[in-house]
Hints:
Low-confidence stretches: none
Strand order of the largest sheet: 13-12-17-16-14-15
Radius of gyration: 24 Å
Number of helices: 18
Number of strands: 21
Structural class: alpha+beta
Amino acid sequence: MNTERSVHTVVIGSGCAGLNAADTLTALGIDCLLVTEEMNAGTSRNTGSDKQTYYKLSLAGDEPDSVGDLARTLCGEDMHGDLALAEAALSAPCFLKLCALGVPFPTNAYGEYAGYQTDHDTRRRATSAGPLTSNMMTEALERAIREKHVKVLDRAMAARIVTGPEGVAAVDVLLRDERRLVRIRCACVILCTGGPAHIYRDSVYPESQHGMSGLAFSAGAEGANLHCWQYGLASVAFRWNVSGSYQQVIPRYVSVDAEGVEREFIADALGESDALSRIFLKGYQWPFDPEKAEGSSRVDLLVKRETDLGRRVYLDYLHNPRGYHPERLSAEAAGYLGKSHALDGRPIDRLLRLNAPAVRLYQDHGIDLTRDRLEIRVCAQHHNGGVAVDADWQTAVPGLYACGEAAGTFGRKRPGGSALNATQAGAVRAAQAIARSRRPLYEGPLPETGWRLPTGVLAAFQAEMSRVAAFQPDREGMRALMSRICRTLDSASPADPGADDFEPRLLLWDALVTQREVLAAMLYALDEDSATPGVLVTRNGDNCRVPARPIPDRDLWFESVWRTYRESHQLT
């Protein structure tokens, strides 16, 4: 394996975070290379919801807001305050950059970016460009890097982050079409490979997304809050979140057993009026939340019970749920649907009035909600944990940064849509830190790559992970799965990069390494007090709680900030 090239910074991944990192690095004068398995694959390009949310500082109306207020909303007992402050401070600049690049976030007649309130928020900070907001972001950011002539190595899979005595030294990359490895020496790496989508079977992540968090863990990075996942209802024939409008129009929930017997199981369990209210609330209170287990999250529990019994669960938009009548709705549901002129008719009629693009999206993928029922399950939706980073999004490995969903910047709860803001803010912070660091290339000798990869059994591990380590964890089942994963990794055999099965072996290795770390964090969290504050840090299966760093005190006196800025940027 010969060094094909040297570059200052390698960006791995072509989603919202990776593209913005490459664009910002180039604008700052840093020579970078974007490595991607497939430019049009991944979660950013291929996922969304009824109207995919971008969460930002309020930019409309008379409601007061500030960077500090936003940081306090983002920051819980298990999120570091300096990360929250950086995401809040960069919220408006990053959002307005996307607007300038052509992402069509709506404004009123006077240019205000009107917003709405999402789960875990206190204000109307959320906005949306429609069901495909992140897709539009990637298209706009890709145009930006193409205009800057950023170097892109497509159809290339990062296989190992190589470290030297002082941190990052190179990346070994599999050229997928040629089935050979090349080594790219570099001073820095920004890992933007998304969440570990390939560790679960029941997942809303697109099939083109799997994540590569194992690259960072194997290089010596730590995990942060790896036990913190969001689970929610999703369609399975075409993987998509059935949140927001899909629930607010109050569809009929029906399960079907092996004999074809249908049940309106939510109405059976809760009563007709209560069922209507909780289904509506799922639109706002989207992810499964144990604190709402007797509220809107009871819907998730009931769906899971039906699927565990071997029944298939569907959303039916052609018929109203049993007992539906505007007078039987809660005041909140009746008020919302009435103001939206979507109170009468069938669920499909209400959905077409409320959010016609949400119907067209399924039509584009072969599912016609005006004719077809929609099969759903409770699925892994988003990883709120990830690779641990500091306030510059640098990991415990010098020169290795992680951005987007790969980074563990959230705790158990986060405002809906804040992940998209985090992709942009984290990418800017990492790029700026790299530009300041002037980190040199490591010129010394490096070890050869020697993988020990297991054979292809990923589907079985994914299925068991969904069974024992999802939103209803099975402690003994998790321990048994952990032992099986460790035995498989320990007994692995070397693989030839030129072999036909090298790529799936590499994905399996990454999934098992990540599953091992996630399971270790989950088991530790189950054994401790559920109210324990702090960030859960995991490294090589060992765990500890550390206090969350507070939101920093900062000097906002303009003359002081201006002087410090000039000095740090070497301005006269």
